[in-house]
């Protein structure tokens, strides 16, 4: 069949019965070969001419943001944040919209045991897994309208555009809504893609209780809203061929450089520790400096030292939790605990930083002079330091084939894949793509968000940037489909 005939033959001669097309199971389109255009029959130029409907994307996104509205932060109609916690009533409304919209597009829609929704638009060969766009529709309690939501909507817009253009992909294409990515209500982030990837046990996920005083579990709430699906939540039972995720950057890099698109190469490694500094409680008025084991003063030095060493190594180090005992103005604290979150693009650099800090923290706590931290002041009796590893997330490297499809798609849109408009970058935050990358070729597309702000009602991505991201997502999916066909995978 010659799909390029699409351009010269009348489109009206084909009559596909909707009753065939809309059946909720996978069907091929190929009964009418000369109307539908195949990705393998398209030149690069033809591929780049397929455009999403930017107004429709914008309208759809703000329509679903009516469910789970949060705090108003500005004057415009859409200057309202989101508070759509996973498996809440508002989440159910957004899910129902997702299911209806994708079914109306002719998708086969399935829900797995973690409530992940997979909508699949059939291709020519439906014996192979789909090429997916995926992200999440749940938000933080004081979140915005773009984190996750944009990625899901852009995936749906990509499928709508394929339909508008009578496109027939070689393999199925689809969109995924992952459950509880934020980990805001059930406190493990990316938990459902984690279960799918085999990294988190299903029972652990099911038994997770909601944050706060309620008794609901992830399982009971999925059941309540009707999204505890029959499909096994497992990459073997429900494989995916590739995963593309459009997301707002959630950082300031693109905005600062004037870049339009980030072609994300991977996600940085991170480790979370709890550090305990043990000293001795004593009276602040009667104990001179030489005779103190001041756990708080020591912790302050260690936190500063982690920052200095991380800076030298091109890594990140942050403390977000600090507790001290006994917590009295006139008692020198004997015990201090603090969190230490360290991050790097590379596992080896992270390990090096961790080892350096482990060795030097103890020495600094004993009063040894390192990095100027004990150069001044009065030496005391010293403290001891204990480390506890809470989370270890290795670096994720995305698949070069997927990254290339993204870059080529940027080139389709902008005329070039080089220059300041597009840049390769590493994600500082975790995403569902971290887990899909363990089981399938994956990459992400970043678009700028204002002031790099997210997890905040005022999170904002312009209509232009939303549209750019969705356009690149569509192009990457189509190009990947063509690539698969050329390799027969
Ligand atoms: Zn997100």
TrEMBL record:
InterPro entries, alphabetized: Amidase_Cbmase, Bact_exopeptidase_dim_dom, Peptidase_M20, Peptidase_M20_dimer
SUPFAM superfamilies reported in the protein's UniProt record: Bacterial exopeptidase dimerisation domain, Zn-dependent exopeptidases
Presence of keyword Isomerase: no
All residue ranges annotated as the Peptidase M20 dimerisation domain in the record: 270-365
GO molecular function, one term: carboxypeptidase activity
Pfam families, per the entry: M20_dimer, Peptidase_M20
Keyword Cytoplasm: no
Keywords: Carboxypeptidase, Hydrolase, Protease
PANTHER family per record: ALLANTOATE AMIDOHYDROLASE (PTHR32494:SF5), ALLANTOATE DEIMINASE-RELATED (PTHR32494)
NCBIfam families the record matches: hydantase
Similarity field: Belongs to the peptidase M20A family.
Protein name: Carboxypeptidase-like protein Ss
Species name: Amylocarpus encephaloides
